[in-house]
Amino acid sequence: MSEKKEVNSIGGIRHDVSLLTEYDVYLFKQGSHARLYDKLGAHLTTAADKTKGTYFAVWAPNAKYIAVVGDFNSWDAGAHPLAARQDDSGIWEGFIPGLAKGTLYKFHISSNTDKYTANKGDPFAYFWEQPPATSPVVWELDYKWGDKDWMKKRKDKNSLNAPISIYEIHLGSWQRKSENADDWLSYREAAPELAEYCKRLGFTHVEFLPITEHPFGGSWGYQTTGYFAPTSRFGTPQDFMYLVDYLHQNDIGVIIDWVPSHFPGDEHGLVYYDGTCLYEHADPKKGFHPDWTSYIFNYGRNEVRAFLLSSAIFWLDKYHIDMIRVDAVASMLYLDYSRKEGGWIPNQFGGRENLEAISFLKQMNEEIYKSFPDVQTIAEESTAWPMVSRPAYVGGLGFGMKWNMGWMHDTLLYMSKDPVYRKYHHSELTFSMLYAFTENYVLPLSHDEVVHGKGSLVNKMPGDDWRRFANLRLLLSYQFNHPGKKLLFMGGEFAQFVEWNHDRNLNWELTQWERHSGIQLMVSDLNRIYRKEPALHYYDFDPKGFEWIDCNDWEQSILGFIRKGPGKYDRILVVLNYTPEPRQGYRVGVPIAGFWEEVFNSDAKEYGGSGIGNAGGMETENCSWHGHDQLLMLTLPPLGAVVFKAREPEEDENGNNVENAEDNDAANT
């Protein structure tokens, strides 16, 4: 903790102070209260008689006794008992005079059932002790933000027509001060380092693996206990605000992973909270996740919906988060997810769909976009569930975007094959365009693909070192030019050799070698072109922005397509050669006559390639090819991608093409 606890005289508990109104209770019981974090939990406040202290409120309808215990009363369960509200809300509350910021506390709960007694954490705590300690800390969220300019323009930055290139990181292993355990950068130390790096490489957004408080570091944050607290491993809530603020002031958006799909079984957490299955389903066929040995929220319980809804809104409201990526949506949608026959309970119609979870997701997205129309929600949904990123009012789930897991798996499977066999798997590349515009897709090369024995990105590639690096350059070039927003997990941008280990630093020392720094430089250039050219981002989610030139050259393992922007000459030609054989005089039909500038070549020497290319561009020839009346004769580098931009011709004051006029004059002469 960076701040010292104030020392006040602690008085006996009072029950004449409450932050809750009847309307709050009504919304809570209805499941539509979206800002419970202002009402439940621990709040520094002042009573009507000017007495300062801390107000506590906790939902535990099946408790027979609750007391606040902590370092201020030697954890004495008899010293400061809460009182149950007389409104059937199940909420217990009380005010402790003199209790100040920095105080450790828990709720001592005795249940009406099973003689259950435990010291539980506060589900709404703003701050927790650093793990493995498990106590919440009385805290407040005061902070002077400096990101006014960003907040004014973030609607445009987060627009579906904007370039969105996401750098996904795990803060504890992105950079460390040493390889010693827990010697990671704090939120404040990481801020300038991360902002400078993202600006240098051209990423528009940073996505943090869950920063919500979690007891087990090996879960990477996906086993959440503190749904309203950034992990104290890296500092205080204000320190995390500083990190977000710093990134915003450097024109970088912030995305957090959020996990409403399950929670761990640690006793101080949500599980069996008041001696009953309060937050989770009582039946393990609906309430326990067999793969993750964790507990599943009861989405049909109104108070649980309000809890999760408030958590999602909290990060947007208090921390200025720009997007929320919702983890494991598929596990929420299907009652039989990862369950054997007979191991699940059908819905009321006999189906496998979790109707309560579906209803909650729609409600959550509607509330988010109503309250914060300039943010986005992103679903990690791995099945073919329809209309995930379509509004709820037309039958969708209401997300703004969805991870394209199919593209990721098909592409990595294809790229892992020796080029001699790739022609037999050509459809693994072209298949994505059959469904590319059915959702608003993000193309992820994520953390899940570089752990648990899967190997790093570069080590998924076949062949010797030269071919592996060329293949990685080709993979990243394909990703950045394919329709959809982009996401790359840390380490992939400089070809980290070993797979990701959450307990170790990235191998930054590799960037002193040209082939690794070359990948970094190439990612920077890909981001620059992606951001600069409307053709590469404006119609990411619209079929009018894409045209196949040739998707059928399976024999040579070559793809060619055009990306289109809103302007007449916003045309980008992309040709990819998935074999190690250079192709001379490769014919490509294009729709615009004139000079096409080679704006990118993944085989450039500065990237570590062989330097085979097209000398900066070429003029078209009048010849019908691929359904167009203009032809380019290209040189395709080995295992390489080339990208061309149509040059807009000069026009006179009457809007006539100057070059054509000059050609006509010469012909007449």
Describe the protein's topology.
Layout: H1 22-30, E1 41-46, E2 52-59, E3 63-70, E4 83-84, E5 91-97, E6 105-111, E7 117-120, H2 148-157, E8 165-169, H3 171-174, H4 187-201, E9 205-208, E10 212-213, E11 226-230, H5 237-249, E12 253-258, H6 284-287, E13 288-289, E14 294-295, H7 302-318, E15 323-326, H8 329-333, H9 355-371, E16 376-379, E17 401-403, H10 405-415, H11 419-422, H12 427-430, E18 441-445, H13 457-460, H14 465-481, E19 485-489, H15 514-532, E20 546-550, E21 558-564, E22 571-577, E23 583-590, E24 595-601, E25 617-619, E26 621-625, E27 628-636, E28 640-646, H16 658-668
Parallel strand pairs: 8-9, 8-19, 9-12, 12-15, 15-16, 16-17, 17-18, 18-19
Antiparallel strand pairs: 1-2, 2-5, 3-6, 4-5, 6-7, 10-11, 13-14, 20-21, 21-22, 22-28, 23-27, 24-25, 24-28, 26-27
Describe this structure in words.
The protein has 669 residues and is α/β, with parallel strands linked by helices. Among the domains are: 22-120, Sandwich (Immunoglobulin-like), CATH 2.60.40; 543-646, Golgi alpha-mannosidase II (Immunoglobulin-like, Sandwich), CATH 2.60.40. The protein is 25% helix and 22% strand. The protein contains 16 helices and 28 strands. A hairpin with a 5-residue loop joins strand 1 (41-46) and strand 2 (52-59). Helix 14 runs parallel beside helix 15 (514-532). The radius of gyration is 28 Å and the shape is elongated.
